[in-house]
Design goal:
CATH topology of the largest domain: Rossmann fold
CATH superfamily of the largest domain: P-loop containing nucleotide triphosphate hydrolases
CATH class of the largest domain: Alpha Beta
Order of helices and strands: EEEHEEHEHHHEHEHEEHHEEEHEEEEEE
Number of helices: 10
Strand content: 25-35%
Number of domains: 2
Structural class: alpha+beta
Strand order of the largest sheet: 6-7-8-3-9-10
Bound molecules: adenosine-5'-triphosphate
CATH architecture of the largest domain: 3-Layer(aba) Sandwich
Number of strands: 19
Distance between the termini: 31 Å
């Protein structure tokens, strides 16, 4: 294994326990994304990997060698920060070359590598400019160039796209994916944006309040969320949830009584249990369908997004969001019937909020 984090904890000097028993093994070349809401400990974990923050307890290995006490240079990591941290008085060329110049690398070699890096990043025409004469996206590319030119083993990025507008973010996301394909560098990327996480990652680490919630591929996180938090965090709009008790084999969702025997082999074992039922907005269908639960509701609001429309509904006391093809947009303030396919239903324990798998 290339990088190993074993029972890593971070307790700040003020006593705040920011990261709890973080365990992860990363293979060479993997693109790992740490994702979670503000304050969940993702930057702290990244900074411990970078060597910018000491590790309170646990073991951190690079290539099987203990690295807890290594300085940032020895770890051979390069980091791209949210604020690009470019030198304003230096040209793009000099900003990209800076790390190599410091190392006393030969001028010819530097030139060759700067030109190659600039080509990868589409900066060839901007090498003589100062950072102030660049767009946000171009500045971000210079910051990435400064990191990748060093040919380090581990590439760390902390919210690198957060200063860009929505369009630039999509473009840079694509470019980062391409750079990763070209360089093959092991990358750890921090973001609070689940779309960025889903589109870039080989594997995602979802964090909340300093605890890892789930580690998996984008596919696993979307289709097999480990708990209510991951179900709600991954996917846009988030998964719909309803809380309640299983009574006489059935679960009340708004005006509908869902007979759990229809969708679960373990229905009998769920009797009397407090559960959370979840289904994704995009999993529902509007036409009557076999092997699906029928729900009657009222449409409160529709939100046209282009090809899809979000439909905000209420059924009794229950609220939910449905995602439908825009051609099927229902009328507002009117009744609607929709169907939840049995296989789209997730159940979670009411207390622990962990998924309840059928054997
Ligand atoms: P964000 O997306 O807002 O950057 P994050 O998930 O990266 O969030 P961290 O920056 O890792 O979160 O912070 C995790 C927790 O540790 C937060 O509650 C933060 O307030 C706390 N924290 C960060 N730095 C320190 C510090 N030097 N001393 C004490 N607590 C800190």
């Amino acid at each position: 294994m290339y990088i190993t984090l074993k029972d890593i904890n971070k307790i700040y000097p003020n006593g705040f326990h920011a990261v709890h028993n973080f365990n992860l093994e990363i293979e060479k070349g993997e693109f790992i994304v740490f994702v979670g809401p503000s304050g969940c400990g993702k930057s702290t974990t990244l900074r411990m990997i970078a060597g910018l923050e000491n590790i309170s307890s646990g073991e951190f290995l690079i290539n099987g060698k203990r690295a807890n006490e290594m300085g940032p240079r020895e770890r051979e990591v390069a980091m791209v920060f949210q604020s690009y941290a470019l030198y304003p008085q230096m040209t793009v060329y000099d900003n990209i070359a800076f790390g190599l110049t410091l190392q006393g690398v030969d001028e010819d070699v530097i030139e060759q590598r700067v030109l190659k890096t600039a080509k990868i990043l589409g900066l060839t025409d901007y090498l003589d400019r100062l950072p102030k004469a660049l767009s946000g996206g171009q500045r971000q590319r210079v910051a990435i160039g400064r990191a990748i030119i060093r040919k380090v083993g581990i590439f760390l990025m902390d919210e690198p796209l957060s200063n860009l507008d929505a369009k630039q973010r999509v473009t840079m996301r694509y470019e980062i994916a391409q750079i990763h394909q070209e360089t093959g560098a092991t990358t750890i990327y921090v973001t609070h944006d689940q779309t960025e996480a889903m589109t870039l990652a080989d594997r995602i680490v979802v964090m909340k309040d300093g605890y890892v919630q789930q580690i998996g591929t984008p596919y696993e996180l979307y289709f097999k969320p480990a708990n209510v938090f991951v179900g709600g965090f991954i996917g846009e709009p988030p998964m719909n949830f309803a809380r309640g008790r299983v009574e006489n084999g059935s679960f009340r969702f708004g005006n509908a009584a869902l007979n759990l025997k229809d969708c679960r082999k373990d229905a009998a074992a769920l009797e009397g249990r407090e559960i959370v039922l979840g289904f994704r907005p995009e999993a529902i269908v509007l036409n009557p369908q076999e092997n699906a639960f029928r729900v009657d509701c009222d449409v409160e609001l529709t939100e046209m997004l282009g090809d899809n429309t979000n439909v905000y509904i209420t059924s009794g006391e229950q609220q939910a969001i449905l995602k439908v093809d825009s051609h099927d947009t229902p009328e507002m303030d009117a009744p609607l019937t929709f169907y939840i396919p049995h296989e789209a239903v997730y159940l979670f324990d009411g207390e622990t909020e962990l998924v309840i798998n059928q054997d």
